[in-house]
Amino acid sequence: MYDTLRHLVERSSIDIIEFAEFGGEGFATIRAKRLFNDFADSKLVVKLHTPASLLFRINEDRRLHLDSFYDYYMEDYCVKHADMVTSPSRSLGSYYADRVGRNDIRQCPYPMDLPHKGFDRVFTEKQIFTVRLIGSVQVRKGIDTFIRAAVEVIRQEPRFTFEIWGADRGAALFGSSYTETCRRLIPEEFRDQIVFAGPVPYSEIPGLFLDSCFCVYPSRWENWANVCLEAMSYGCIVLASKEGGMSEMVEHGRSGFVIDPLDPHDIASKILATYQDAAALAELSRQASRRSREICDPERTAHKIESNYRAPSIRREWQGIEGRAPLVSVIIPYFNQPQYVQEAISSVRKSNYPNLEIVVVNDGSTGEDARNVFQQLAEVVKIEKKNGGLSSARNSGIRAAKGDFILPLDADDLLEPTYLEKGVAALVNNPDLGYVSCHTQNFGEFNNAYIPIGYVPELMPYINTHGKCCNMYRRELFADETWYDEVMTSYEDWDLLLTLHDKGVEGDVLPDELFNYRRHFDSMVYTTANRQRADLIQYMMIKHEKTLAPHAAQMAVMLARLWKETEIREEHAEQQVVNLVNAPNRFGELQWGDKIRCQIYSRTGGGFWEHNSIYAYIKARKWSRLVISLPFAGQEGVFRFDPCNAPGIVVVKEISLIDKKTERCLYRFNDAKGFSRCSIEGASETRIQDGFLILVVTGNDPQIHLPQVASSRASKLSVVLYCDDRAELSDIGMILGTYHSWRRSASSTQKLKRLLFRSKG
């Protein structure tokens, strides 16, 4: 997004660039304007919708992911640093005023072209007694409150029915959809009167409105619900939540009702008090239509949008550093790295920044070559000291430095030529920032980009989201107790960011790759940090306990996810190793031939998931007996076997499931009667011929669904099959003809193995 907009602005002048805050689409662009003065002649506007941070709360989600916190941070950043922010509702503007401290958010409704067909409606009895909620099925829409209100109404007036129209967009917890969860709230005797009508095409929604009297929207919170305005424009009697923007649309008691979304009695009482009063219904309908026209008048809305765009905003005077560039001190700790240090110094000297000093600290190098290289360094400030570690060397260099800005650079890393200039300009023009980081390019043993997002307080104690070791700091930050922690053997740069945050110092990230981080296996990361990672992180968390306390609950929830996901991956990897070694029925041969992949899924939560599967490889164009241990005891006892991962011919002679504890066969299918107990999906053609199950596969995911067994059993699956990704339908006869010779050969091999075993015994 940032790159595209930058190219557009280079070609022509753009007055306004507008982003939604949701998803953080303007994040890099807004950051670039703040730190680089890009888009100086364009006004960057954020129009609020409903941010991820608010959705998480009102959807009452019980799951947190790393991406969740990244989303919250990026959206907050966009709102905080945009040139202008507009919001359809006052409610959402107030949310962000409290969240990020922005108090100049301007109100501006969405433009809508409504039909306004609700003039002088006369409701039929059917319309009055059919109450509808039209919207997606998710927690925040208040489906549960709607159902409870419906039950209360029907108990007093059995002629009512209540309908929920919309697709299920609720995140399924533990395999249950939100529709299924809400259906449990409906008493059995009311199942025909409270119904989930399902998704509805947008083109059919007007017909629902015209056939409705009461439309209920008990949302936990809404920004600016278009469906509420649409219902009003058709003259429906709207019961709208008091939480969020709908309360600003509806004039309570005049053009609808404002209700408590958590109080079903509030909804029920308003319906029961109004449904028999035809005159009141007619007046409410007229006023609803009038109010929707008033809110959504296109000319009025367009004028409001344009006036916002034209409103003056503070244009920042960007201070250049030409002719008065402050001194930057680059601190290079040096310990036994003679092969790298000259390259690091050279990268600093290639900088286009005119005023810098290089301070190299020899931290007690022990090698003669390392000492000689240090002595030969020229045009740098040289400091020698006893070995005290990386933090000690950096601190010594900072104390000796004369610069207004400090930039630590490890002796094996490199700077891009523009880093110093861009970093100083960003700090000079943003006095509220104490330091800046940047994007990083890893090179050496592996090459990829590291993109720090910024200081995410819920993650920083255990995941560094805010930059590597090469940040640029204001010199005055290093005073009193603010230094690199000399006790730590690694992660000292990460710890310093936590210390600065403790003291209220803010930093930001230059959106450009300006630092090159050498990855080699004799670096401290591999020799020290990786082995001590858990101890180092716990040390930091305890050290900064007071600052972390407000986020402790979310950290605990997030750490539980990371821990368990890692545990699952390790168990899965371990099982793959077991399968690779133990599954084949050929002496001394692993399941790794032409890579026909066979995969077994265990059903959990009503579905088959990748993380709940194991797989093995068999050789193509050969008969094989595949035996796989199923580490799924205690789940649903339903398995799915995917015999191949490519088009071709699959021939199955036998499928057996064996109890691992008793070695008893739970089922064995090797003829037409047995195979008929399996359901088969994904293959273009399925047939049973001469006792063989034949799949002619044109896709890449044929599935054999096996019958259910007791969920407490630990078992193993044995399959005799032939897979050929080159065969055609005409080859089946040849394939079947090779089975018996393979079986005799396999039987002979088994006898030989038993004889060998006995002779060794």
Protein described:
This protein is an alpha/beta fold. The protein has 4 domains: 2-107, no CATH class; 125-307, 3-Layer(aba) Sandwich (Rossmann fold), CATH 3.40.50; 328-543, Spore Coat Polysaccharide Biosynthesis Protein SpsA, Chain A (Alpha-Beta Complex); 583-758, no CATH class. It contains 25 helices and 30 strands. The strands form 6 sheets. Strands 11, 12, 13, 14, 15, 16, 17, 18 and 19 form a 9-stranded mixed beta sheet that branches. A hairpin with a 2-residue loop joins strand 27 and strand 28 (692-697). Helix 1 (2-11) crosses helix 2. The longest helix is centred in the C-terminal third of the chain and has 31 residues, at 552-582. The chain is flat, with a radius of gyration of 34 Å. The termini are far apart. Mean pLDDT is 90; it is low at 583-593. This is Glycosyltransferase 2-like domain-containing protein. Residues 329-454 form the Glycosyltransferase 2-like domain. InterPro entries: Glyco_trans_2-like (IPR001173), Glycosyltransf_2 (IPR050834), Nucleotide-diphossugar_trans (IPR029044). Pfam families: Glyco_trans_1_4 (PF13692), Glycos_transf_2 (PF00535).
Please give the largest β-sheet: 9 strands, mixed
Overall, the morphology is flat
CATH homology superfamily name of the largest domain: Spore Coat Polysaccharide Biosynthesis Protein SpsA, Chain A
Give a count of the beta strands, DSSP E runs of length 2 or more: 30
The third-level CATH topology of the largest domain is Spore Coat Polysaccharide Biosynthesis Protein SpsA, Chain A
Number of helices: 25
Look at the helices and sheets and give the structural class.
alpha/beta
**What is the CA-CA span between the terminal residues?**
71 Å
Strand content: 15-25%
Total of domains: 4
Protein name: Glycosyltransferase 2-like domain-containing protein
Organism: Desulfofustis limnaeus
Pfam families: Glyco_trans_1_4, Glycos_transf_2
InterPro entries: Glyco_trans_2-like, Glycosyltransf_2, Nucleotide-diphossugar_trans
